[in-house]
Amino acid sequence: MTIHLNYQNLFIYLINAGICKKDDLDSLKFDFNHSKSFYWVIIPHKQDKLFVKQIPQYRSLYNDVRIYKEWHFYNFLQSHKDLDYVLSLIPEVLHFDDSNSILIYKCPNNYITLKSYYENQETFPNAIAELVGTTLAKLHSQTISSQECYTFLTELEEHKLNYQLPYPDYLSDYLLSRTEPESLKKSQAVSWRFLGIFQQTEAVREVVTELVLNHRHFCLTHNNIHFDKILIPKHWEKLVTETQDSDKSLIKLIDWEACSWGDPACDLGKAILGYFLLWIDSMIVHPAIEVKKSIQLATIPLEVFRPSIVAMTKAYINTYPKVLEDYPEFLKRVIQFAGLGLIYQLLAEFQLQPEIALSHQELYFFIAGQLLCKPEKFLSI
After folding, report:
1. 324 band by pLDDT with thresholds 50, 70 and 90
2. Most buried in the list 37, 73, 210, 353, measured by CB within 10 Å?
3. What are the CB-based long-range contacts (under 8 Å, 24+) for 106-110?
4. What are the φ and ψ backbone dihedral angles of 6, each rounded to 5 degrees?
5. What are the beta bridge partners of residue 102?
6. What is the pLDDT of residues 91-141, one digit of tens each?
7. Per-residue confidence at 85, pLDDT binned at 50, 70, 90?
């Protein structure tokens, strides 16, 4: 790797790669709300958004091939017409630089993230949740019988089906009591107390172990769904009725580097987790406030989000009813994967913002424990 992109040299790279012209320089702007280290969103004047991503140098030393994988997955879809619906979910890839692990794709400028929509509108229409549920159901149901897709993904994975949940191996090692001294050094010391509490909570630990070790390998999954990876048109209300019977997706899903032949309950569970995170973000968290009191003081009660959770799940089942025959424990697993995602969210926070994670750990663990051990409390369809 010889080029390390940053805010200073990124525009020059785009010109040298033929993505932009020198005349475009004055009109190029960063979307600072959605850009971060090694990931930039650029808004040209009256043109499609550009997404630029690069594998950090330290990850390249560990043979991180996720961007390579995303590029080859996009090419694979281009040559398989029976997977046109999946291809319509993915923004157009413009450029791949193998030697520098850089991938650039574009998305129409009239698309926004689902997270941005919820934050700006502060409303949660069931129709959007239904659209996401329907989209995921089509993704899963239309790929379950694709032998070509199965072969491609499993051959591309270095370790085949040994591990394909969208989390780093060493984080799972912490949860599965496989932590070696060298592995523990990768975690923040402030997280060790949480890991100790987790290991001593037998009911939670048993469910997590079951999910991590025995998840299903069922169909193509995006495998890392978040609200900021789901893009919807700004004027989605009008387009929903116009494209209801279309064989193309209205929604776009970005960042497919973790895609796998995996568990559909994980995709839907990660999508539903977004509502729980919005709920948690509305809580007042302080060491002097008990967890149950923080939940009571939430400015947006869970009951506001529950209709969206139910609507998303119903839409999924209505679009893909056979999943309940093929996967009888599917609904239970969906909620449990939401709980598992919350625990991994906390572990990732310990890596990036340890002090914030320290203040969140009790609340996150309490809610995650409820989702994992009492999933029936959170879903009724």
Report:
1. very high
2. 73
3. 106/48, 106/49, 106/50, 106/51, 107/48, 107/49, 107/51, 107/231, 107/252, 107/254, 108/48, 108/49, 108/233, 109/43, 109/46, 109/47, 109/48, 109/49, 110/233, 110/234, 110/235
4. -155, 180
5. 54, 97
6. 999 999 998 999 999 988 889 999 999 988 888 999 999 999 999 999 999
7. very high
The CA distance from 364 to 192, in Å, is 15
Distance of CA 10 to the CA centre of its chain: 25
- Contact predicate 256/269, CB 8 Å: no
What pLDDT score does 298 carry? 93
Max Cα–Cα distance, the chain, nearest Å: 62
Residue among 155, 367, 344 at smallest CA distance from 261 = 155
Q: How distant, in Å, are the alpha carbons of 115, 166, 172, 329, 353 from that of 163?
A: 29, 9, 10, 21, 26
Q: What is the pLDDT of residue 227?
A: 95
CB within 8 Å of 59: residues ≥ 6 apart: none
Question: Can you tell me the distance from the alpha carbon of 184 to that of 178, in angstroms, rounded to the nearest whole number?
Answer: 10
pLDDT in tens, 184-210: 555 555 565 676 677 667 888 889 888
The predicted structure's pLDDT at residue 62 = 47
Burial class (CB in 10 A: 0-12, 13-18, 19+), 178: exposed
* Alpha-carbon gap, residue 221 to 136, rounded angstroms: 9
Predicted TM-score of the model (pTM): 0.89
* CA 270/CA 277 separation, integer angstroms: 10
**352, burial (CB in 10 Å: exposed 0-12, middle 13-18, buried 19+):** exposed
Structure tokens at 26: 């004055």
Two tokens, residue 196:
């100790």
C-alpha to C-alpha distance for 89 and 178, rounded to whole angstroms: 37
Between 82 and 44, residue with greater pLDDT:
82
* Per-residue tokens: 310: 């139910």
Q: What b/e readout covers 132-151, taking b as 16+ CB neighbours within 10 angstroms?
A: bbbbbbbbbbbbbebeebbe
